[in-house]
Amino acid sequence: MRIDPNKLSEITRKTVEAARGEQVGEVDATAKSSQAAQADQVSFSHQARQIQRAHQALSGVPEVRQEKVAQAKRKIAQSTLEIDAEAIARRIVEGGI
């Protein structure tokens, strides 16, 4: 359903008037009772719920692991950083990087 922002105030006014039981523009009593009987419902798919849970779990995890960065900087400064090129290539080929 699309809601036109230009008609939002009119929709809000009609909703308030309908809740108060007042006359609403061109809406007759049958339409009012039909609208009142129907309730809006929202349901999320299983996949959407999983994505939401994953997003919530990851929101507390920092994007960069600062302790790893600090350790690498220390090793670079001390010229002791060892790089395993074969392991890096293997991870790239396997899709791990």
Task: Supply the key terms.
97 residues, mainly alpha, 59% helix
Descriptive notes:
The protein is mainly α. The mean pLDDT is 77. It has a domain of 49 residues.
Q: How are the SSEs ordered, and which strands pair?
A:
Blueprint: H1 8-20, H2 29-37, H3 46-58, H4 66-77, H5 85-94
Briefly characterize the structure.
Helix content is 59%, strand content 0%. It has five helices and no strands.
Number of helices: 5
What is the element string, with H for helices and E for strands?
A: HHHHH
Largest sheet: none
Tell me, what's the shape?
elongated
